[in-house]
Automatic annotation (TrEMBL):
The lineage of its organism: Bacteria, Pseudomonadati, Bacteroidota, Flavobacteriia, Flavobacteriales. Keywords: Signal. GO terms for molecular function: carbohydrate binding; hydrolase activity, hydrolyzing O-glycosyl compounds. It comes from Flavobacterium araucananum. Residues 1-23 form the signal peptide. This is Carbohydrate-binding family 9-like protein. Residues 43-195 form the Carbohydrate-binding domain. InterPro entries: Carb-bd_dom_fam9.
Length: 355
């Protein structure tokens, strides 16, 4: 079947990309070891499945930007097999409501749960999935983060074979009672993330960059129905953004800050430590953000590392000496990793190349 694909620009309400303001605190991504399941999982929204009972929940979600404790609890479990990535989300909510029923509408205009996945950890060509309490999905492919000016997404991209189910612990769209919340269960086929027909992309004993977000709106009840709350000027009040791995800014689209999910083939519990080379990547993205801020202020790129920060960077007991090279189209910043002897290079568009 030939599919006609349409590129569209989507402006997301929770983005804060002007000014490139950054958190002053160091962001340490969360980690989770996803165990392999040998027992088939029925996608029905029921958390009591035997396979789920064998694995642990993540820590409770946090506010996306700061250390403020969210109003309601959210947590996730993850499993995998040779076919699917399984996700179970438990979402506490005293008022479960949703009214968007058309696939690929802007689902975060309802309370929703969102999945972000970057298989190769380069922040380009990543995937987003949003689902509300009606089990309505919006899935999209992003060629690069929104922080670049040519912000486009492939909104017509769908996840072939996606299975998802919602179980309401209470009553949906009934403002006359108090609910416990809702459980979302999903199976995302690995085949959805293939880059070619022969690509063997099941991440056995490997990590992918993953994050989860919960969007929660304050609400009003009008004529017996829920709707997003507005201020005195008729504008919608800002939504809450609660996430598994905090971002430090109100912007999910900085994939270098997402969590690490390690897909273990080991029977029983396994451990995972973030590789040291990932910390080299983090430092390059810091320099990339410093360059963004420098350009915004001076209207030209900095010509030396000293214009941005100290000329050397320390990771534990190792010293990194990044090199900045300007060229017609922008700049490159490169650094040799003292851990692997590989050279990491970041371009002006945020793409990292390893050689």
């Amino acid at each position: 079947m030939h599919l006609k694909l349409k590129w569209v620009t989507v402006v997301l309400g929770f983005l804060s990309i002007s000014g490139y303001s950054q958190s002053k605190n160091t962001i340490i991504p969360k980690t989770y070891v996803a165990a392999k399941t040998t027992t088939p999982i029925v996608i029905d929204g029921d958390e009591s499945d035997v396979s789920w009972n064998k694995v642990e929940w993540t820590a409770l979600f946090e506010d996306i930007e700061n250390n403020v404790k969210p109003k309601y609890a959210t947590k996730v479990k993850m499993l995998w097999d040779e076919t699917n990535f399984y996700i179970l989300a438990k979402i506490d909510e005293p008022h479960v409501w949703a009214n968007l029923k058309q696939r690929d509408t802007i689902i975060f205009y309802n309370n929703d749960f969102e999945v972000f996945i970057d298989p190769d950890s380069d922040t380009f060509n990543y995937y987003e999935l949003e689902i509300n309490a009606l089990n309505t999905a919006w899935d999209l492919f992003l060629s690069k983060p929104y922080r670049e000016n040519d912000n486009v997404v492939l909104n017509d991209w769908n996840i072939p074979g996606l299975k998802s189910a919602v179980k309401i612990n209470g009553t949906l769209n009934n403002p006359n009672d108090t609910d416990q919340g809702w459980v979302l269960e999903m199976a995302i086929p690995w085949a959805s993330y293939k880059t070619s027909y022969f690509d063997k992309n099941v991440p056995v004993d490997k990590f992918w960059r993953v994050n989860f977000s919960r969007v929660n709106w304050q609400h009003d009840i009008k004529n017996g129905s829920y709707e997003r709350k507005k201020d005195a000027n008729g504008k919608f009040l800002p939504e809450y953004n609660w996430v598994w791995s905090p971002m430090g800014v109100i912007n999910m689209h900085e994939p270098e800050k997402w969590g690490y999910v390690y897909f273990s083939s080991k029977e029983g519990k396994d451990n995972f430590t973030i590789p040291q080379d990932e910390k080299v990547r983090w430092e390059l993205y810091n320099l990339y953000r410093f360059q963004k801020e420098y350009f915004e202020k001076h209207k030209v790129w900095a010509k030396s590392i000293a214009d941005l920060t100290k000329e050397t960077i320390r990771i534990e007991d190792k010293i990194l000496k990044p090199v900045l090279e300007n060229h017609t189209a922008g700049y490159n910043i490169s650094v040799k990793s003292p851990f692997s002897n590989q050279t990491f290079l970041i371009r002006q568009d945020g793409k990292i190349i390893v050689y």
